[in-house]
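tool_call: predict_structure(chain=1)
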Amino acid sequence: MVETYTPGLMQLTDGAVKKILSLRDNESQSNVLNLRVYVTGGGCSGFQYGFSFDDIVDEDDTCVENQGASLVIDSLSLQYLQGSTVDYVEDLTGSKFIISNPNATTTCGCGESFSI
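tool_result:
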């Protein structure tokens, strides 16, 4: 029997939710601030992850919500990020949002770029 895997959109960990809500509460006067995740060409592995905060959701964006925190992905980036998990970590190298991407065949050492 052949099994198929249909990835979900994207997931936000509790750590990512907590940080998004904290930043939204501190930075946004309108309390409508979304974490935008996108993919661009470049980086040492071919594609590079990008993060920004945005209060605008475009018509072709996909929104993922968890506990009041919103993640926004444009349609071009979604094809590379489908099924990924966004987390927020704090360690000796600093604090940052990171992506665990099941679609990536290789990643660089810093985890900020990947190839498919």
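agent: The CA atoms of residues 10 and 95 lie 21 Å apart. Proceeding to next step.
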